[in-house]
């Protein structure tokens, strides 16, 4: 499997981190089926990543973190996802928050520093809570129904957030809300242990079961003025490069599916053939198609991540390209897993086969932001506005 990663590891720092994560991801793979069956959160995986210092990966060095870039972020996330997709997707949201905040510096420095130091020193987990039943994906721009009203010197927040990944393990949530009756929205930093914050265990899906993306319910949650960490900035928002953790995650699932199929093809020897099915031309064709899908999607992912890192002056124009990576990668990942199941055949449908889990998990990527229609529309507008 080494050639799948060797081409993308460019220096000693990346090799050091990859070697560390490679060992952990192999352990995660052994537990993935259990968490999928139970719909349980992989606390032990997260604990091992905490001990490895992974939660500080994208926190700036000046605040005690590793200060690694978008490129390292997606490289390591892909490897974790090949072991356990739910663990990777969860940590992707946490690390992505800090990568975005590190690059944009949109918060007050002392507030950002304080949160970073909590992660470095206390290993706290953070995620954004933005999705709601009435608005759908926050990337479509709907106004949140969650509302923050000023009462004296404090804000009082009421509302419900859906798809709150890592809900049972979160220490803090960055919650989007309407700011009073201003027609504007802002983000509030919420302590998950404070009064009025509860989790409703609503997560009951066929895919990414271990993410425990339950509902976050806030009833008369009182926070001080400093908790309003960010107000709406309008059309000057940076492209969301940190969302590349999404395609990285689903490509990791595809790699896992590919490995299952290749190993099966080399070892399965039905008595109707003189050797393993790997010698059958049609099986070889399907394996070649898997390799081609992975190659084109991963090249696009890593070249785009490298451009973001190496050409900061180009970032404001990279929005459509970043969106295109997600579209290509998630659709290619779904095709790879489908091909893997065609190679293995009916055995891939057995609950004991990892392929049926990969098949369910990879479908979730099609519903993570940005959606396919938004990507196509964005690319069309760029072409027509030249």
Automatic annotation (TrEMBL):
Keywords: Flavoprotein, Oxidoreductase. InterPro entries: Acyl-CoA_DH_C, Acyl-CoA_Oxase/DH_mid-dom, Acyl-CoA_Oxase/DH_mid-dom_sf, AcylCo_DH-like_C, AcylCoA_DH/ox_N, AcylCoA_DH/ox_N_sf, AcylCoA_DH/oxidase_NM_dom_sf. It holds the Pfam family Acyl-CoA_dh_N. Residues 247-365 form the Acyl-CoA dehydrogenase C-terminal domain. GO terms for molecular function: acyl-CoA dehydrogenase activity; flavin adenine dinucleotide binding. SUPFAM superfamilies: Acyl-CoA dehydrogenase C-terminal domain-like, Acyl-CoA dehydrogenase NM domain-like. Residues 129-221 form the Acyl-CoA oxidase/dehydrogenase middle domain. Residues 23-98 form the Acyl-CoA dehydrogenase/oxidase N-terminal domain. It comes from the Bacteria. This is Acyl-CoA dehydrogenase.
């Amino acid at each position: 499997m080494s050639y799948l990663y060797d081409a993308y590891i460019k220096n000693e720092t990346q090799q050091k981190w990859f070697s560390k994560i490679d060992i952990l991801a192999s352990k995660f793979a052994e537990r993935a089926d259990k968490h999928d069956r139970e719909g349980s959160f992989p606390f032990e995986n997260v604990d091992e990543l905490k001990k490895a210092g992974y939660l500080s990966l994208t926190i700036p060095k000046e605040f005690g973190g590793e200060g690694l870039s978008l490129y390292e972020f997606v490289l390591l996330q892909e490897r974790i996802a090949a072991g356990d997709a739910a663990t990777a997707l969860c940590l992707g949201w946490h690390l992505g928050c800090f990568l975005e905040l590190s690059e944009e510096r949109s918060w007050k420095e002392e507030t950002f520093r304080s949160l970073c130091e909590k992660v470095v020193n206390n290993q706290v987990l953070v995620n954004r809570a933005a999705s709601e039943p009435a608005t759908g994906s926050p990337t479509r721009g709907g106004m949140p129904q969650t509302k923050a009203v000023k009462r004296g010197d404090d804000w009082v927040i009421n509302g419900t957030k859906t798809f709150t990944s890592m809900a049972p393990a979160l220490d803090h949530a960055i919650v989007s809300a309407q700011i009073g009756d201003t027609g504007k929205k802002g983000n509030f930093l919420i302590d998950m242990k404070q009064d009025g914050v509860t989790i409703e265990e609503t997560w009951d899906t066929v895919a990414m079961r271990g993410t425990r993306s339950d509902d976050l319910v806030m009833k008369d949650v009182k926070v001080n003025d400093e908790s309003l960490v960010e107000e709406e900035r309008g059309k000057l928002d940076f492209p969301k490069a940190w969302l590349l953790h999404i395609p990285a995650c689903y490509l990791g699932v595809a790699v896992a599916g590919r490995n299952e199929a290749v190993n099966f093809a080399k070892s399965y020897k039905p008595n109707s053939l003189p050797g393993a099915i790997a010698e059958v031309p049609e099986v070889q064709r399907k394996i070649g198609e898997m390799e081609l899908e992975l190659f084109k999607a991963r090249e696009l992912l890593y070249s785009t991540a490298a451009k973001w890192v190496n050409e900061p002056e180009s970032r404001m124009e990279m929005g459509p390209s970043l969106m295109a990576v997600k579209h290509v990668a998630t659709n290619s990942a779904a095709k790879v897993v489908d091909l893997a199941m065609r190679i293995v055949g009916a055995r891939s449908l057995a609950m004991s086969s990892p392929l049926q889990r990969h098949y369910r998990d990879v479908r979730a990527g099609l519903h993570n932001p940005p959606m396919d229609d938004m990507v196509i529309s964005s690319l069309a507008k760029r072409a027509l506005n030249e």
